[in-house]
Amino acid sequence: MRRHLRAALTGLLATPAGVAAAELAAAITDPATGPAVAVGSALIDAAPTPVKEFAVRTFGTADKPLLLTGIAVGIAVAAATIGVLAARRRRYGLVGAALFSLIGAVAAVTRPTGSAADVVPSLLGGLVTAAVLLTFLRRRATTVDPDGGGPSVGRPPRLLDRRAFLGTAALVSAGAAAVGGTAIAVRRVRGGAAAESRAALRLPAPSDPAPALPPGQAPGFVTANTDFYRVDTALTVPRVDVDGWRLRIHGMVERPMTLSFKDLLDRPLIERHVTLNCVSNEVGGPYVGTARWLGVPLAPLLREAGIRPGADQVVARAVDGMTIGTPVTTVLDTRDVMLCVGMNGEPLPLEHGFPVRMLTPGLYGYAGACKWLT
Predict the structure, then answer these.
(1) For residue 47, what is the enclosing H or E element?
(2) How many Cβ atoms from other residues are within 10 Å of residue 48's Cβ?
(3) Do residues 232 and 371 make contact, with C-beta atoms less than 8 angstroms apart?
């Protein structure tokens, strides 16, 4: 019993150490390629729409923390299993670590914005997991059939004795905590650049301001930014610096365009009060809000690019890979489809798509869902 418990603890120490190393590598390159976020995002993508709507209705904004908690529990169960297998045969544990790493790598590389380099964090995590497993396990000599001529029989590896196990466990725990803490610090530094660029941003006045609200409008009709609902598919909020942001208009157009954030602000801006209602919101539910949005009309941009005959959908793609299709006729009609840069008199909050999100008034369900456009 003690051997099995120590074996399970071996996996529970080795696997988190590997995950910490993978998350540090992801924090340095791209936070979305970390195994936890990549696997969670893949699960969200694979879930049928009714399941997603049920999760939003039932758990509200706690749906993603619950998903991440479930992933953490799954990692713990897999880690203990890997430790028990490794205590039987070291190669079993190494195969388990390799499979664990492979799942994260496949989830990262198959994301809509994935590339071959996105496998690096998960593969590094697998190597660290394997190395820590081998640190806790010692190879035993093989036994030979006493009758002679029989094949050598491998014996289970020897676990460290209690004192050595506790000492090694303390070192591994401290190392994993240090690496994990460094990953968190790196993420904060990277995210700080986006927050700083937002704080320094001053939006120009609209050339076409929003009409005044009718007299006697009930207080609270316009929802404060801090109270505005947020329901989306992103497990982590993308943090984009305005200096690196670009908008590409390409595909079935005569004149492809690439605009910087400054290019966008140099164009005439419109301002409108628009109410958004989540597709998962029930009557009387909390996922509805009205804000005063500032942005660039999308229709003139498409006309400048020159829409080719036969083009019937505008596909907006976010930096996290999410895509939303909007009929071209909807964009070109009079409903003020815009690329929003402001919300209630200030730059978009990071949680609501800074620096730019697409807003399509009157389109049910995903009216404001496509954020972080590139």
Answers:
(1) none
(2) 8
(3) yes
Amino acid at site 64: K
Do the beta carbons of residue 231 and residue 287 sit within 8 Å? yes
Is there a domain that residue 96 lies in?
A: yes
In a shared domain, residues 154 and 238? no
Amino acid in position 246:
R
The CA distance from 237 to 230, in Å, is 11
Contact present, 307 and 253 (Cβ < 8 Å): yes
For residue 221, the SS3 value is coil
Q: Report if pTM > 0.85.
A: no
Q: Which residue in 329, 209, 347, 326 sits closest to 268, CA to CA?
A: 209
142 in the same domain as 287: no
pLDDT in tens, 305-361: 999 999 988 988 887 777 788 889 888 887 789 999 999 999 999 888 899 999 988
Per-residue pLDDT tens digits for 139-188: 554 444 555 554 444 567 777 777 888 888 888 889 888 988 888 888 77
Q: Is residue 212 part of a domain?
A: no
Query: Which structural domain range is residue 270 located in?
Result: 225-359
146 and 62 in a common domain? yes
